[in-house]
Amino acid sequence: MIYLDNAATTPLCEAAKRAMAEAMEEYANPSSVHRAGFEVSQALAEHRKTVAKTLGCGGDEVIFTSCGTEADHLAVMGAAAALRRRGKRLVITDSEHPAVEQCAKRLEQEGMAVSRLSTKGGVLDLNEVEAIAREGDLIAASLMHANNETGAVYEVAKANEILRRHNPNALLHCDCVQSYLKLPVSFSRLKADLISVSAHKIHGPKGVGALAVKKGVRIVSQMPGGGQESGMRGGTENTVGIAGFAAAATEGFAAMEQNAKTVGQYKEFLLQELSSHPKIRFNLPQGEASPYVISMQAEGLRSEVLLRMYSAQGVCVSAGSACSAKTGKSPILKAFGLTDPQADRTIRISLSHQNTMEELAEFCRITKALVR
Ligand code: PLP
């Protein structure tokens, strides 16, 4: 099998497997006051510090969640709930993952005004950001860092700086699920107050994510319960998942630059091999792009047909994102500027450092045989 669907999820790394196997032996509840519980809570505190280090923040700024989606919900709904009385506007991009877009829709139904910034060509228009920022009344913004379907990396720091200048009290969230451990991510780099990440995109387990909340920032918990996670997220912590998350994060953080370099070489190779193909076109962002996600169109082949052809050859890629695979048309590709027929024949190739040049060469060979 050639697995090129790493933006959907990644294989568990060996370090995560080992850490999880070990954590499975320690079954006590970290909130219990007996010795066994205390030991698990100590381990949890260590894992929290470990993940915090990869985000350039303190352990007390990390809230573990069940996934990236939950971290996004907590950020957007929690910020809106905290500041609702101070204003009534939220800003997002028109290319957010459904985890953010659906929160915005819900808030819209509840009377919030939502501005969606254009991401045409994979770039934010900073003049548009400035115009929206000047309208004032903004309580929160949620701008994603790297796009999951096109690989576009948005100028979030610049946009947040502009939004902050005109709306000093607004809370700024950044969905970093696709950029975490691929690009440096921190409050200061992104000029953000809240950062969402997910373990299964970085060779950690499914079912665990985190929201980093800058010290002093107040949001409202969306899952009140037994006071876990500093009262921000009730529910007994997924100790096994968190152990795996911390192990994968440690490994990914140490190798971040090297991995990005390796994956950059894969992308370059793939573009070189396939760009001159008369029926292949790449949807390349006009600004910065992540080497991990490549969006490609094959003339005359609808993506669902091409996906099945690839699958028969043992190749795993996806059409748009795994999420839009179920709901049909991708609003993200439309926002990027593709027509419906172009979006219909777009596939996403998403890479990991665990891929090999041989796999990429084989993928190109198979592609040339299938797209003729
Ligand atoms: N945000 C982005 C940009 C994503 O790509 C994804 C998953 O694909 C999510 C959020 C949701 O993460 P999770 O699958 O951990 O809920």
Kindly list the characteristics that best describe this protein:
single chain; 372 residues; alpha/beta; seven-stranded mixed β-sheet; three-stranded antiparallel β-sheet; 14 helices; 43% helix; binds pyridoxal-5'-phosphate
Structure in words:
- By secondary structure, the protein is of the alpha/beta class.
- The protein is built from 14 helices and twelve strands.
- The chain has a seven-stranded mixed sheet, with helices on both faces. It has a three-stranded antiparallel sheet with strand order 9-10-12.
- Helix 6 links the parallel strand 5 and strand 6.
- It is globular, with a radius of gyration of 21 Å.
- The mean pLDDT is 96.
- Bound molecules: pyridoxal-5'-phosphate (PLP).
- Residues 67-69, 72, 97, 99, 144, 148, 175, 177-178, 198, 200, 209 line the site of pyridoxal-5'-phosphate.
A few lines on this structure:
The chain has 372 residues and is of the alpha/beta class.
- The coarse silhouette is globular
* Attached small molecules: pyridoxal-5'-phosphate
Structural class: alpha/beta
Discrete helix count:
14
Gap between N and C termini, in Å?
Answer: 23 Å
Count of individual beta strands: 12
The side-by-side strand order for the widest beta sheet comes to 2-8-7-6-5-3-4
**Topology order in helix (H) and strand (E) letters:** EHHEHEHEHEHEHEEHHEEHEHHHEH
Q: Quick one: biggest sheet?
A: 7 strands, mixed
Beta-strand share of residues: 5-15%
Report Rg: 21 Å
List the helices and strands and how they pair.
Elements: E1 2-3, H1 14-24, H2 35-54, E2 62-65, H3 68-83, E3 89-93, H4 98-109, E4 113-117, H5 126-134, E5 138-142, H6 156-166, E6 171-175, H7 187-190, E7 194-198, E8 209-213, H8 239-254, H9 256-274, E9 280-282, E10 293-298, H10 303-312, E11 315-316, H11 322-327, H12 331-336, H13 340-344, E12 346-350, H14 357-370
Bound molecules: pyridoxal-5'-phosphate.
